[in-house]
Amino acid sequence: MNALYRCLALIPGLLCGISLNAQQMPPGSGVAVNPVTLNPAENLHRIKLPEGFKIEIYANNVPGARSMSLGPDGTLYVGTQSTASRENIGKVYAVRDQDGDGVAETVKVAVEGLNMPNGVAIHDGNLYVAELERLVRFDAIAKHPDKAPEPKVLDSGFGNTWMHGWKFLRFGPDGRLYMAVGSPCNNCVPDDRHGQIVRMDADGGNREVFASGVRNSVGFDWQPETGELWFTDNGRDMWGDDIPPDELNHAPNAGLHFGFPYSYGKATADKDFTPPAGLELQPAALELPPHNAAIGMRFYTGAAFPETYRKQLFIAQHGSWNSSTPVGYRVILVRIENNQAVGWEDFANGWLMEDKHYWGRPVDLEVMPDGALLVADDHAGVIYKISYGK
């Protein structure tokens, strides 16, 4: 089982060459991995959206497209984790819509030779990349279109922790860099450098823990009116189909502990672990369905969608592997009222087919200046654009 978990964690969408029968599985924990390869442009009709919305291909040929960050010049930087073709591992792509028609014409390699560069962020013209074991910065990246400059290493103390080693980066409204550092396990008490969201100055200095008790967050954003942090987190595996829930968490201030490994969701306790005396565990703002792998998320700050979608929260559900029936593979909408998450609903659904095979896996979201919502897909290797109206 450990070999299967590692294969699936490192190579999403790739069949691992490991076969398990029901007798080899822990009770109640199925493995549902059913990828198929379809031409995304020819299968957009499968995606169901609310009335008035449409989905198009924004960029083709972005293998393993993961986290996205939009530069001030309109260049979209796209990190990767790993793909079925190992030649694509280690690249960050620069995607450009040069003529402004809403479709990217160029996809170039901005940086290569990196180790699981999932997290990307642009700040003051510099490209920040979170690798498996380190955080690096490429200065004035737009001035080096053909060959990236040598990276400046801001932190290299994360170790070779492959499980949940793919990190997420964003700059907050306070001008500081926030980074999610996953727990190097399915369920354990992590060390003092993992299972956290940390923040630091743009040069890597003054690093501090902002949130702890975080199992595996691969997406966060700040509510546009309050400036408060919200983030997704994935519940543990090997506990059956129905528990524990994935989480949407709300961190209005630093210093909160969000439960891992002691509890999940509102109050689903893991009896294998007893929290230290006096530790206050923060319940989830909203419980999300188990094993759906809620990761990338954005508050909608554009003006192109109808009013009912503005300042609401979109979440990409990457899809299950540790479930006897595949679940997820969609984008959901979380309704926010009075700074509270009150429920969720489907927004874009159809990458999981009726026969339970999937042809796409949404990863991250980005709101464009024209109000369109981009969706990265690491299985199909494309970036979609969802827009409203004609």
Sequence-ordered SSE layout with sheet pairings:
Blueprint: H1 2-10, E1 53-59, E2 65-70, E3 76-80, E4 92-96, E5 106-111, E6 119-123, E7 126-130, E8 135-138, E9 152-155, E10 168-171, E11 177-181, E12 196-200, E13 208-212, E14 220-222, E15 229-233, E16 246-251, E17 256-257, E18 263-264, E19 268-269, E20 286-288, E21 294-299, E22 313-317, E23 330-337, E24 340-349, E25 362-367, E26 373-377, E27 382-388
Parallel strand pairs: 13-17
Antiparallel strand pairs: 1-27, 2-3, 3-4, 4-5, 6-7, 7-8, 8-9, 10-11, 11-12, 12-13, 14-15, 15-16, 16-20, 18-19, 21-22, 22-23, 23-24, 25-26, 26-27
* Biggest sheet descriptor: 5 strands, mixed
SSE succession: HEEEEEEEEEEEEEEEEEEEEEEEEEEE
The quaternary structure here is single chain
Distance between the termini: 49 Å
Catalogue the unreliable spans: 1-29
**CA gyration radius, whole angstroms:** 19 Å
Mean pLDDT reading:
91
Number of helices: 1
Number of strand elements: 27
Give the percentage of residues in beta strands: 25-35%
Strand order of the largest sheet: 10-11-12-13-17
Share of helix, binned: under 10%
**Structural classification:** mainly beta
Shape: globular
